[in-house]
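Sequence in, structure out.
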Amino acid sequence: VVHDRTTKRVGDIDLDVTQSSYEELLAVDVATGFRRDHNLSVKECPKHTMPLLEDVLQKVMTQNRTRVSIQPKMDCVGEAVALIKRLKCESWVGFNDGNLTLMAKVKKLAPELPVFWDRGESDIDEDIAMAKQNEFEALVLNHAVITQRKVENIHRAGLEVGAWTVNSDSEMKRLLELGVNRIYTDYPKRLLRILRQNGQASRKDSNHE
């Protein structure tokens, strides 16, 4: 489980994930980037290795406060869905990405799994129609292009609205006031604080990738 194609941004070794074995990837300390960005010592932030998806799913199933949103960067949807079904962790998992083919495949293989379709500056009416056609649960837009009209149109269609990636307090507040349901952020504590201030702390609006 890793966000980028390479380990350069997060690790102490730069490997191409698609060209490396898992044994090779285990040599990478994936806490390096976090430790550097937050001026932490190895004692304060020990070495971490890259987990398998099964490791992540088994971990998240031990609690009931957070969920896993899987963003496939290649066609691994079939394998991921098979793993989810084997572990019986459907209630903990959703999928998000901008690749329509992959997201439609999720719904074909597992209609019960929620899909949050990532969009950019595309035609919102066409996106809504396509999301409804594929029975997706939400449209996730870049926060900079979200307007009141878009939020209202998406909600009117029976879909949720998501925003990525939102890291400033002012933008979080603006989006919440517009009625955005899902906020993807690198700073979930900031969002939770704002939600508590608004009396919305129980809402599952914090999505941290």
